[in-house]
Amino acid sequence: MKVATQIVEHQRGFLEYGDEAMKPLVLHDIAEAVGMHESTISRVTTQKFMHTPRGIYELKYFFSSHVSTSEGGECSSTAIRAIIKKLVAAENQKKPLSDSKIAGLLEAQGIQVARRTVAKYRESLGIAPSSERKRLM
């Protein structure tokens, strides 16, 4: 219960606003907050689910690595994936965004990621490369 409470406190933005508001969170952060070992937190969150206003999620879903921003802050990989998904959904179908263009748009928002990272996140979302998205028209 303590672990779930800490996760909710840390990820309140996600629960209220969605994936783009997901904060970076690692097992160590929760372990420190509740006074347990990281391996205990890992076992506690495996195959356990939380019913939220946004749906049912495995507790592991709330843990996400981070990328540094140009302002010195951090952005979670889940939030970056959500932004990529939104950018691709809003792109011009006749001229889809390349991975480098997406990386440039993220950089303009203060999120510094390599083109290869954008490609990895795009593939994990099941989004085809720009050349294939253009052909699908």
TrEMBL record:
Cross-referenced Gene3D superfamilies: Homeodomain-like
Any one GO MF annotation of this record: sigma factor activity
Domain of life according to the entry: Bacteria
Domain RNA polymerase sigma factor 54 DNA-binding: 1-135
Name of the featured protein: RNA polymerase sigma-54 factor
